[in-house]
TrEMBL record:
Lineage: Bacteria, Bacillati, Actinomycetota, Actinomycetes, Streptosporangiales
FAD-binding domain residues: 2-314
Gene Ontology MF terms: FAD binding
TM regions (residue ranges): none
Protein name (record): FAD-dependent oxidoreductase
Pfam families referenced in this protein's UniProt entry, alphabetically: FAD_binding_3
Length: 391
């Protein structure tokens, strides 16, 4: 398989493009957006994914663009500071784990591939024939040996080849919304968090960012809404957070003017197989672990590396399945567990969590407590031994 089409120019797509090109394939990437997507929220790179970044020669560049977050401060409804944590502990990061803005990482990956990979923007796949002929919304039909779906949890490629999303989606019972807001709190590499029963608001500002990002997460049964109606989604968010204290009302006012508003359910994608005929899925398209896992970017990086390597080594999509399946399952298991600590269900549980955070620096069993927080993430992030594929 030497002529390969990738659908999606985000982390999974650009990383897959890089490794396939290094293994001698001719690669085309089609992306619905008119250009590489900028902005986004901060993401973690941990464990095996750091090895992939290092093998791509990007480790120093990623470090140079790290968010450099310092602390996370919790506030009560009246705006009183109730607890403070080190940012790495708050994010479950250990050792050499790195945090970077999603747009910065995507830019680095795109710059690494743009001269050797054909990018087709403002277009999308409409059909994939058994002989590999692909039709597009705008471009003329073309024939490929393989189509890689790297187009996210709501993958168009997966829908075409495998069926509707409802057959693979597993709703965890929460919603998430993220957007840019003015840094009215004067945050400097700091996260400010306010939690109430069933909902959490978080606003943060990273290094070299004059603005801030607001993140909201709340528990909810499935909501009926139009994915294209951003105004309606903002109203749903406002209703979900109604009555919250601290700075939440002011943040919701700022959300009304945001032009990078993101809104979605906290959902995982579970599939028995990630390949069918001439189509294979990578990243969120095949095995979304949800934002609650903190491992979506790492899964994309590792999955792309293994897929390209197995195709080049002759293991094919079966080899990709064998090498990656246990790693995916370990990281997906983090989502349902983590989200319960991100959105606290009752006042009693919230009171207990706040007291534990406040006491943590002074407890004699501090290291054991930290291990309970960061240990499962670290083990999942390293739950694969990466092969050194020949180029």
């Amino acid at each position: 398989m030497t002529n390969i089409l990738i659908s999606g120019a985000s982390i999974a797509g650009t990383t897959t493009a890089y490794w396939l090109r290094r293994h001698g394939c001719t690669v085309t990437v089609v992306e619905r957006a008119p250009a590489i997507r900028e902005g986004g929220y901060k993401v973690d790179i941990r464990g095996a994914a750091l090895t992939v970044i290092e093998r791509m020669g990007l480790l120093d560049a990623v470090r140079a663009r790290s968010t450099d977050m310092r602390i996370a401060t919790h506030y009560d409804a009246r705006g009183r500071r109730v607890a403070t944590l080190d940012a790495d502990l708050f994010g479950g990061r250990t050792g050499g784990d790195l945090e970077i803005m999603r747009g910065d990482l995507n830019e680095l990956l795109y710059d690494l591939t743009r001269d050797d990979v054909e990018y087709v923007f403002d277009d999308s796949i409409t059909a994939i024939a058994e002989d590999g002929t692909v039709t597009f919304e705008r471009s003329e039909p073309r024939k490929f040996d393989l189509v890689v779906g790297a187009d996210g949890a709501h993958s168009n490629t997966r829908r075409i080849a495998f069926g509707e999303e409802s057959g693979f989606a597993r709703d965890l019972g929460y919603y998430i919304s993220i957007c840019s807001v003015p840094n009215t709190l004067g945050l400097d590499r700091e996260e400010a968090v306010h939690a109430a029963p069933g909902r959490t608001a978080n606003v943060y500002s990273t290094r070299q960012d004059s603005g801030a990002k607001a993140l909201f997460m709340w528990s909810s049964p499935p909501l009926d809404y139009d994915h294209r109606d951003v105004t309606g989604q903002k109203e749903l968010l406002t209703r979900a957070m109604d009555g919250s204290g601290w700075q939440v009302p002011a943040l919701l006012e700022a959300v009304r003017d945001a032009n990078d508003f993101y809104f979605d359910s906290v959902t995982q994608i579970h599939m028995d197989r990630w390949s069918k005929g001439r189509v294979v899925l990578v990243g969120d398209a095949g095995y979304c672990a949800s934002p609650a896992s903190g491992q979506g970017t790492s899964l994309a990086l590792v999955g792309a590396y293994v897929l390209a390597g197995e195709l080049a080594a002759g293991g094919g999509t079966d080899g990709y399945e064998r090498e990656l399946r246990a790693f995916v399952e370990a990281n997906q298991a983090l989502g349902p567990a983590n989200v319960k600590g991100m959105v606290i269900g009752s006042r009693a549980a919230l009171w207990f969590q706040t007291r534990m955070i406040r006491l943590l620096p002074h407890l004699p069993g501090r290291d054991r407590m930290i291990e309970r927080v960061a240990g499962p993430i670290a083990r999942a992030a390293n739950a694969i031994t990466l092969k050194q594929y020949r180029e």
